[in-house]
UniProtKB/TrEMBL annotation:
<dbReference type="GO" id="GO:0000287">
    <property type="term" value="F:magnesium ion binding"/>
</dbReference>
<dbReference type="GO" id="GO:0005802">
    <property type="term" value="C:trans-Golgi network"/>
</dbReference>
<keyword id="KW-0333">Golgi apparatus</keyword>
<feature type="domain" description="P-type ATPase A">
    <location>
        <begin position="223"/>
        <end position="357"/>
    </location>
</feature>
<keyword id="KW-0460">Magnesium</keyword>
<feature type="domain" description="P-type ATPase C-terminal">
    <location>
        <begin position="894"/>
        <end position="1074"/>
    </location>
</feature>
<dbReference type="InterPro" id="IPR023299">
    <property type="entry name" value="ATPase_P-typ_cyto_dom_N"/>
</dbReference>
<feature type="transmembrane region" description="Helical">
    <location>
        <begin position="1039"/>
        <end position="1065"/>
    </location>
</feature>
<feature type="binding site">
    <location>
        <position position="766"/>
    </location>
    <ligand>
        <name>ATP</name>
    </ligand>
</feature>
<dbReference type="Pfam" id="PF00122">
    <property type="entry name" value="E1-E2_ATPase"/>
</dbReference>
<feature type="binding site">
    <location>
        <position position="872"/>
    </location>
    <ligand>
        <name>Mg(2+)</name>
    </ligand>
</feature>
<feature type="binding site">
    <location>
        <position position="469"/>
    </location>
    <ligand>
        <name>ATP</name>
    </ligand>
</feature>
<keyword id="KW-0812">Transmembrane</keyword>
<feature type="binding site">
    <location>
        <position position="469"/>
    </location>
    <ligand>
        <name>Mg(2+)</name>
    </ligand>
</feature>
<dbReference type="GO" id="GO:0005524">
    <property type="term" value="F:ATP binding"/>
</dbReference>
<feature type="binding site">
    <location>
        <position position="852"/>
    </location>
    <ligand>
        <name>ATP</name>
    </ligand>
</feature>
<dbReference type="InterPro" id="IPR008250">
    <property type="entry name" value="ATPase_P-typ_transduc_dom_A_sf"/>
</dbReference>
Amino acid sequence: MAEQIPLYPVRSAAAAASGKRAAYFSAAGPGPGAERSSRYQLEDESAHLDEMPLMMSEEGFENDESDYHKLPRARIMRRKRGLEWFVCGGLKFLCTSCCDWLINICQRKKELKARTVWLGYPEKCEEKHPRNSIKNQKYNVFTFIPGVLYEQFKFFLNLYFLVVSCSQFVPALKIGYLYTYWAPLGFVLAVTIMREAIDEFRRFQRDKEVNSQLYSKLTVRGKVQVKSSDIQVGDLIIVEKNQRIPSDMVFLRTSEKAGSCFIRTDQLDGETDWKLKVAVSCTQRLPALGDLFSINAYVYAQKPQLDIHSFEGTFTREDSDPPIHESLSIENTLWASTVVASGTIIGVVIYTGKETRSVMNTSNPKNKVGLLDLELNQLTKALFLALVALSVVMVTLQGFSGPWYRSLFRFLLLFSYIIPISLRVNLDMGKAAYGWMIMKDENIPGTVVRTSTIPEELGRLVYLLTDKTGTLTRNEMVFKRLHLGTVSYGTDTMDEIQNQLMNSYSQTQPQASGNNASSTPPRKAQSSAPKVRKSVSSRVHEAVKAVALCHNVTPVYEARGAAGETEFTEADQDFSDDNRTYQASSPDEVALVQWTESVGLTLVNRDLTSMQLRTPSGQILTYCILQTFPFTSESKRMGVIVRDESTAEITFYMKGADVAMSTVVQYNDWLEEECGNMAREGLRTLVVAKRALTDEQYQDFENRYNQAKLSIHDRTLKVAAVVESLEREMELLCLTGVEDQLQTDVRPTLEMLRNAGLKIWMLTGDKLETATCIAKSSHLVSRTQDTHVFRPVTSRGEAHLELNAFRRKHDCALVISGDSLEVCLKYYEHEFVELACQCPAVVCCRCAPTQKAHIVKLLQQHTGRRTCAIGDGGNDVSMIQAADCGIGIEGKAVFSSVFYFASVPLYQGFLMVGYATVYTMFPVFSLVLDQDVKPEMAMLYPELYKDLTKGRSLSCKTFLVWVLISIYQGGILMFGALVLFESEFVHVVAISFTALVLTELLMVALTVRTWHWLMAVAELLSLGCYVASLAFLNQYFDVPFIMTMTFVWKVSAITVVSCLPLYILKYLKRKLSPPSYSKLSS
């Protein structure tokens, strides 16, 4: 229909033409999704942009098109098509395609369709719908063991050990006892399976708690209690105040007399504003709840979709004559994971389980792998290549005689301990220890580690993506400042406003009581009198009254003993101040009304047509609400026209952002400056103005306004034009400043993280103005930095021009909306990410949950850096799951991980098992207690964190250094044992293995930076275990020989030669080239 055609802001002639075309084609689509897709398709006129790349320099912007420089995107694509891409990327693509095909064959997704839902009769549903259960588990009973084993053996390190262990079942390849290989591998798998089982059980318990929540279900026989997981499509569910809505429903009835209620959606879209929902008028008018079963009615709902801001459906009652058809929109819906904020509501379930909006906007959990595991996997492959090369050399020296391939494989097995399984054991145990230490940290009490596989990732983060509401802010608004132009009031001078307001109303009260009925003559006299400068007291009076009237706040009083839908009269309700709460679509509005109450002017009642204020003296002032103009993101202001019942004066009040109000108020020389001052303090500003109207002026406006609302063509434009006719030469009353309370220590924490080298992005579902204000007040954007607000773009051409304009900015924070981000990523993904990553801070507002996850994945793909996501609501789950490290709480931790290994392929049976576990595990494991600097020093100098993100502690250089050390020590141990060998070969085993264990313990001590008493215990415990086991290992050691001084001095000599040079080198390195942390420690 023509009246459904949307209109878009017109910026130029070309834009106007494009907008008309977009509006025309979008009208043909069935909904907002089609509107967006059709808008993208209308890019024929910008096809030439394929050959016009974004400029790379400021000079290119000022010259002609020939000065544009091409981005390396084409070269990148050409490079990917080389031999490396064909072998690696092509193989990966082939495997991925095959896996996707198999998954699609095994799990065919059911096509989503529109549905007809009969009220209270789920058995009438034509199709089977999913259960209303929440499942965050990664496995089930049948897939747990295969899934965990697959996640382990997809890494080369574990797969290598599995192949080596399985080879021992082949008699021709067997070179030792089975437990020599299977005991360490079994220990690693047992620890991993146990850890995954614990994590999976915790997820199961959380899901069970949510699915077991009880709700009241309305049936023909009355109310019955049902679990959330047992709710079906078509059920009539009763949801009480402050209760979570279990599924997507259509709003049928409420206990509120106005037929509407407020819901909190912060767990769905991240917005703190309460949403006003309206019940279906046909069912709201029914006398009682039971009448819902006496009517024959159904709801037709569109197929399930992602968009949480739109809905199309109809309500039909067939048993009336004629049948009643009522259109349903987003204001008639109650989405799952939202919370009822007022009254008791009854709804009919239309979507359940994985078809609800909240679940569809949540991505499936993935198995996260730490960067350390990936690096070790690559290093393991390098060691394996060295092992193969060494085996080939040995076979070559034999001259490839006989079955050389069998000899090659046996050499591979003999050298297999070059890749130490003890590394896997210590790594898993170290991660578990780090997780336990985080949960026991006294500085972050209550922290729970949900997964124990990636705690070391906290030391490698580069990008930190955070939610705003509840994460950076407390979602608590506090009124801070009132500015009248010549005088400003802060929190310490509010008592002056209270006194002036009391004096003002005490003077006007006798006049009001004397002239109760008339006001037109005085108003005309006032308008004809010359303007005089108002006193401060009268200006305060007008400002406070305007703030108390211009809002959408409703005071709510809890009824005594309220239950169900029983309606109470005013006599049954407690109208005391303690029992009153305010409800509004924005916490800013509530903060303003609470402030007027604190200074003496209290909002005591409001309905759709009137509101009542109580003055400091207790007098009740009644105002009739003639018109209300709600706030929109386009207008950035809201207004109300009221009539004072005592004087019959009609006044138009309006408030909004300074950018929208500066053009409609009378000339002044202070508004812009003071708005800037408040913004720098982190306050959210609102400009308040008024205009007095005569009866003739209002009647003329009302006629034009109603006529515009009835027009079929360009309705929105005509209505806006009529309202704008009132918004002229308005009297500026005041400027208000409200502060969104930040979480404790947010500012120093963000500054510390920034100094540590982390780049912080804020992803929020809130409005652009709110997000920008919080970014400044939290010091996410420093005071010295400029902020570039990315203008709304809807086409490829607009995105092209806006990106070029943004490229000219330097050291500038970026603020962009979700819709504009979607357009930029559609056409200029690589260029946009390249520009955004250069910004000191990025703020993305109006982000959908899936968009947040998409941004995380883009950073991972384009930068290859580790990302961390922090959030507090259900709308942040996708982002947290997509990030390399997800945090649902605030916390700080510094980690360091050092692993040492040495391998000699000589020892059999229990010696290798003991070396891989008991003899060496405790000292290496105790390294989790090591600290390069104290926590206080790390917090004082966050720049130290940059060294961790560079990954120098486990780079190719350090890996080669440790390999050389291992070769040196292994050569000394073997060569020394053979040189000092006298009579029996068993003495070689005793001397070399004892020297090996002592070398291991000394090398761990060499690695330690800060000693902990448990480290010394671990060293002594391992040494004690080895000495005690000598008495039981007669088949490996000559016990009488071990008791001689010859054994002692030979072992001591070999150990000193293998370790002393390394201690000397470490001492010289610390003296000549000390690390950064040692400079601070000294």
